[in-house]
Design goal:
Length: 352
């Protein structure tokens, strides 16, 4: 029997950048020929959603906007061209909502670099609503045995850090610094890193985040609010005192982006993932050259990264530390996020 689709639904709507959200009823849209309509059950809340609301980046959002890009749910309708996603399948609305799949980037599996890629909760409406639309070729295929609530943060945080760890070039036995380790991305990075055989130096602020990181398997913890010399402390946490092979930067402040090159070992890799407003990278050219340090940006992941990151979760290798509140309470989550008080991830239940 075809699922009942209402004509109206609850959503969190941003009417103007920098203004409060409105929790209200809006129409349910119809999927286009190559799209699916997803009954979003749960959505993780990513710091990117807060950047979007505040207008932090040099790229405007659509307005009015329904944010959210970690939406886990069930397919309830599909366009006439969709053949490989069935009604009832579990899928994920992730950051990349659509891509052309025929340009040079898409052909090489870099659909996040496609010039016509659309972004959920940014250039198209996302998962802070009960019914969201995405291109069928792009939605994440979520195995049926995965709990939709617990898996939702994998759809951005998990995929992103999994790809970032690959970009770091680290191999089993290497040590990597995870900067912003207590947050949503960081909490998952600690566990993907551990599953890949890496040692981790978690960097974040406060004793509570330290406890949280240790529980998630961090090898050691450096508190950026307490340390007198972060470079010395991070180097001291490695076997030979030379520093980690890489740093994965998922923090939301500029300062750690300026510090990381000084504590990675020679030939180390600095992987930039966090996107603090107006932040710049700078490092002495001399030091970069004679120590052969590399800087990289890493941006979400492609469809293969998505399937692989989900499979780590399915196999029980990744524990997602989350708390759930109703979609109606989303503003409270952003208030806590702004204060840096969230350890792990908040998930919203779209039925409340
Ligand atoms: P979050 O708020 O959950 O976590 C950020 C963490 O950084 C917090 O625990 C905070 O205490 C910590 N932090 C702040 N200043 C720090 C410092 N000086 N040193 C160490 N830690 C510090 O945020 P999140 O949802 O994990 O997102 C993190 C960032 O990643 C955001 O900027 C987001 O937009 C970005 N992001 C990028 C991509 C990508 O594809 N590149 C994907 C998703 C998110
Ligand atoms: Zn995100």
């Amino acid at each position: 029997m075809a699922p009942q689709i209402p004509s109206e639904q609850w959503a969190q709507v941003l009417e103007a950048t920098g203004k409060p959200l409105h929790y209200k009823k809006i129409p349910v849209q119809q999927p286009g020929p190559d799209e699916v309509l997803v009954n979003v059950k749960y959505s993780g809340v990513c710091h990117t959603d807060l950047h979007a609301i505040k207008g932090d980046w040099p790229l405007a959002t659509k307005l009015p906007l329904v944010g959210g890009h970690e939406g886990a749910g069930v397919v309830v309708a599909r366009g006439e061209l969709v053949k490989d996603v069935e009604i009832g399948d579990h899928v994920g609305i992730k950051w990349i909502n659509g891509a052309c799949l025929s340009c040079g980037y898409c052909m090489r599996g870099d659909e996040q670099l496609c010039q016509s890629a659309t972004m959920s909760g940014y250039t198209v409406d996302g998962s802070f609503q009960q019914y969201a639309i995405a291109k069928a070729a792009i939605v994440a295929r979520i195995p049926k045995e995965c709990d939709l609530e617990a898996v939702s943060p994998i759809l951005c945080a998990g995929i992103t850090v999994y790809r970032g760890l690959k970009e770091s070039g680290c191999k089993a036995g290497d040590t990597i610094a995870i900067v912003g380790a207590g947050g949503g991305l960081g909490s998952l990075a600690l566990q993907y890193a551990k599953a890949m055989g890496l040692h981790t130096i978690a960097i974040d602020g406060g004793a509570d985040k330290g406890e949280h990181c240790k529980k998630l398997g961090a090898t050691s913890y450096v508190d950026f609010t307490k340390t007198q010399d972060i470079v010395a402390d991070v180097k001291a946490a490695t076997i030979d005192g030379q520093g980690p092979a890489a740093a994965l930067l998922v923090a939301v402040q500029e300062k750690p982006f300026q510090q990381a090159a000084a504590y990675v070992r020679s030939k180390g890799v600095v992987v930039c993932i966090g996107l603090p407003a107006d932040a710049k990278l700078s490092n002495p050219v001399f030091d970069t050259v004679i120590r052969m340090v590399s800087f990289k940006g890493s941006y979400v992941g492609n469809r293969a990264d998505t399937a692989e990151a989900l499979d780590f979760f399915r196999r029980g290798l990744i524990e997602v530390p989350y708390k759930t509140v109703g979609l109606s309470e989303l503003q409270k989550v952003f208030d806590l996020m702004e204060e840096g008080k969230i350890a792990g991830r908040y998930v919203v239940d779209t039925s409340k």
